[in-house]
Amino acid sequence: MGTWTPALLVQRVALVLLCAAYLQGGIDKLWDFHGAVAETTHFGLPMPVLVTVLTIVIELGASVLIISGYQRWIGALVLAAFTLMATFLANRFWELPPSGRIPVANAFFEHLGLVGGFLLVAWHDLRERRAQLPFHPS
């Protein structure tokens, strides 16, 4: 596992914080599976039970990959794509009347920030992996 340094501790805490909403969401969906299926149904998604199960697997599984460092870049790209799709599904502020638009627009752009954070995690992890290769082409 290696020696824990302050930098490694800060990195791990940052990754846990980045994944906190997905860990909480996945655990909540497991805890109240019927409510999670109802939420999926509310958004009009097909096969709500299957979509809910896949959502739980994505939220928890990708978070574990990111936090553990095992194939971190894959987990980060999965959560980036998931977040982008979910944001366009759940935060369509442009469809709302002006009076209700601002809070939903804020949530939309906050989620885009999360997407950016996950893309940075993937990029950093891939660069780190490439640097560890005995030979890496330019």
Search tags:
mainly alpha, 138 residues, globular, 5 helices
Q: Summarize the helix and strand pattern as letters.
A: HHHHH
Enumerate the spans where pLDDT stays under 50 for 5 or more consecutive residues.
none
Strand content: under 5%
| Principal-axis shape | globular
* Percent in helix: over 70%
Radius of gyration: 17 Å
Report the end-to-end length measured between terminal Cα atoms. Answer: 29 Å
The main pleated sheet reads as: none
Total number of distinct structural domains: 1
Structural class: mainly alpha
Average pLDDT metric: 95
Number of strands: 0
Count the DSSP helices.
5
Walk me through the structure.
The chain is mainly α and 138 residues long. The protein has one domain. It has five helices and no strands. It has helices spanning 6-31, 33-42, 48-68, 72-90, 98-132. α2 (33-42) crosses α3 and α3 (48-68) packs across α4 (72-90). The longest helix is centred in the last third of the chain and has 35 residues, at 98-132.
